[in-house]
Each structure stands twice: as C-alpha cells, then as structure tokens.
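Weekly structure sync, notes
Attendees: PL (lead), two postdocs, one rotation student
Agenda item 3: pending single-chain targets
PL asked that the sequence for the first pending target be pasted directly into the notes so everyone works from the same version. It is reproduced below exactly as submitted, 124 residues in total.
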Amino acid sequence: MTEDFLGLFGKDTDVVTLAPGDVLFEKNEPGRVMYVVKSGEMQIIDGNYVYETVSAGGILGEMALVDAGPRSATVRAVRQSVVIPLDERRFLFMVSQTPFFALRLMRVMSARLRAMNERARAPE
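Predicted structure, written out during the meeting:
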C-alpha cells in the first residue's frame, strides 16, 4: 500500500514489539485494535497463503474496527517489528477530527479489495 500513517502516529511510545514469526493476531479472533507498522515487516496470511506484506507506515487490522467483525486473516512478523496499537476510541477520534485519516484508510481498504478481486480472477 502506498499510504503512510507514520506521520500521524510515528512518535507514539505505546508499542508492541514482535520477533520474527510472532503472531500479532489470528484469523477469527475478535478485533478491537488496529495497528500501524512502525518498523519491520508483517505478513497478512491465511494458512500458507500470503495476502500481503506490510512494512513501516502501513496499517493492519483496520477491518475489524470498521465493521466490528472478527479478524479476516492472521498477521505475523516476518522480521523484528514494532507496531502501534490504535483502539476504537482513538480510531473514532481520528476519523472525526482528521478527515484525511479516514480517506487514507479507505484508500488502503480499497486497494486491498482490488488486489483480492484480481487474485480471484487470476487463472490457477
């Protein structure tokens, strides 16, 4: 994804550090937090299938905050990574006070949906 969220959250000190292979969250878990990748690389996976690798500035787990549904995939660290958690209260504050945050979030979600549509159309 081309959207970089570190300008909004890069100075946050409330972070989660993950070693290579650590799982941030599992598919079907309830999702009450989204994450901004501060450093490292995180993979969005389902079983052995890698949907996307997200690096610094990218976001993870936003769907669960938007629709209050369970996690749609598992996310694990590819290498040493640091992520910034954003709970629903902060998410809603950012959406209401920073219109570009909401637009950037929608761009990421739209790009991910387009990528999924392309994969669904691709011949096996």
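Discussion points:
- The radius of gyration is 14 Å.
- The first strand starts at residue 16 and ends at 18.
Action: rotation student to compare against the earlier draft before next sync.
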